[in-house]
Amino acid sequence: MSAGLLSRSLTLAAALATALAPAAMGQRLTGAGATFPNPIYTKWFDAYKQKTGIQINYQSIGSGGGIRQFTEGTVDFGATDGPMNDQQIEAVRGNVVHIPTVIGAVVLTYNLPTLGQTQLRLDGATIVDMFLGRITKWNDRRIAALNPGVKLPDIDLIIVHRSDGSGTTYVFTDYLTKTSREWKDKAGYATSVNWPVGLGGKGNEGVTQQVKQVEGAIGYVELIYAEANKLPFALLKNSAGNFVAPSLAGATAAASGAKLKAGTDFRVSITNAAGADVYPITSFTWLLVPADGKDPVKAAQIRDFLTWMISDEAQAMAQQLSYAPLPADVRKLVADRIRALKAAGKPIPG
Amino acid sequence: MATSSLPTPEAPATAPPASLVGAQHGDRVFRLLLTTAALAIPLLMGFLVYELYTGSALAIDRYGLGFVTGSTWDPVAEEFGAAPLIFGTLLSAVLALLIAVPLSLGVAIFLTEFAPRWLRQPVAFVIELLAAIPSVVYGLWGIFVLVPLLKKVVFPFLRDTLGFLPFFQGPIYGPSMLAASVILAIMVMPFIMSVAREVLLAVPNSQREAALALGATRWEAVTSAIVPYARSGIIGAVILGLGRALGETMAVTMLIGNRHEIAASLFAPGYTMAAVIANEFSGAGTDIHFAALTYVALVLFVITVLVNAAARLLIWRVSRGAPAGGTGL
User: Fold this and answer.
1) N or C: which end of chain A has fewer CB within 10 A?
2) Domains along chain B with CATH numbers
């Protein structure tokens, strides 16, 4: 018994020593930011450490915090679900590159038990009318027109949105803003906005609980969350006029459909992108890295990690966790951009 | 300290000066330590205010005192007003006290005056355990148990019976000002109850016996001799509960519906200052949004200080009229 304990504590000590060794050698990177990609980042950093011994600490403190800490230089890289605006880029004197990592999708989930297995069909204009408070009943003719043959109940339509600042809100309101001029004027897009109507739930789980408990409620959550919790979600009409279910393929198609040009800074919105199979409410999530790093060693480490991150191996891991991988054309653009990163004004050696 | 005054072979008791000098030296160190500790608290407060002020300077410059009366909260248009938040914070705390104070005082009086002896300790223990539950657990319990119960049973009942009042009208969603107040009441109850119970236990038995000897019933003894004697302590207990209700964050944000709105109906969603900070702080992208949230924290701080000062004044006025012995009889 005591021998077992001894050997176990020795193993623990050895494990601790291995964990601490790279830190002692300075092979440690720190990052902070977005919560939405936290599961895949954690997995990537863990796999990368086992592969190369380089430890990357990541704190999922939210996109706003990620941008803030990156700007203040307290982390080696930031992470965000919404790109930095021009003013924020000015604050770091332009020394930042947005590197897309994976693609997320936002779904509309609802509580309409009378619908059974029938999936609701919605389009952008109708969703805007709902979230502006202009559609207040489920049997409204605008919803009925999109769902021929579906018997919609005569109950109140109740909006549920996120109350905490979140990338999910950013993507969703970006979609509404692109869809409607009026939404743009009244609310706009950001990680938190001034919602014309509705209840606020904290986190995906808060929104889900409120939708589940109120018949006639509709809210938006991340695709991963909806799938893991088997929530019903609406089919959305894309720019090609097709009704598509949210899926990883549909999200990846949106990134291809966005047709990024060579030399892009990747700060592009891919909501409502063109393409027959595109799911319209999708977005990149980004890592923020300095275009010209101070420390050549760290810059090289970041560059190497990013190169691995867009490899088939890493992108397949993303798919396992229900994140949509980057399409091949985007990965190529990212690879070009990574090669152009600098440190102390010079190309990164190695 | 005790060891230094003990005679030792080297310094026998007949030679006190050496040990006395040692004690004085020790006293001085001890005094210095305590003074530092005592000064650290106001210093910390000073740092807090300074940090909150500098953090919110941008918002103070732009919105001034209008921030307190404005009711729009629009991070996109960069328009911020905290009136609904202040309203929500005060209303939810007051409602929580309205529910919690009678209940917890009743329990405290029952446990000290009426309950059979074998019941007193176990019940008091269980209620004090409630104080140790993390607020996020209260919040989860609120979402899964309390809100469905309120929504299906309690709210419809209130609407049907008291629906003529504006407080109990309008659609019932579940998450609401009233739901948040109920969870707050449950959370502050153990604090008020256990302090009130200690205070009531401290009332001298002569006070009880005197009242009973004069022919008072148990009830009359409680209302005329015991509670008045303990009233400043009881007010202190209520203030403790109020402080907790004003600052509670997690459980409230999970149940209040998080809507920037001043509504008459208690069924409508609301928002509190602590909740908006918890919700938006991590996602605040722009400097002005960040500053506005810090400004909210500053306002919350000021309100808490004001409430506590008012409470002190209340206790002072009450206890001035009631020196030990009380005016009850």
Assistant:
1) N
2) 59-319 (1.10.3720.10)
